[in-house]
Design brief:
Layout (H helix, E strand, L loop, with lengths): L1 H12 L3 H14 L11 H20 L4 H18 L1
Length: 84
Amino acid sequence: VSMASSVVWSLQRNTSVEAEELKVVLVKLSGKSQKHGKPPTAGTLLSGLFVLIRIIDFLDLVNDDPKKIKKIRATIKKLLQSTA
């Protein structure tokens, strides 16, 4: 957690194009609302970062194999259809 907090702290102070793009991604992943024109809060960035870390862990688990990801997606769709 302290490492993630350090990353967010650094990201908040970074104004590079790459940092701004990452902030947008993290806000979207966080699922939190953001007022237009306001910089994202540390909490919002941290929430998004934790989601991104879980996504990266998942991609590592399936070895970035699109076939495995498609199979998981198909299974989820099948399960969702059976509950409807």
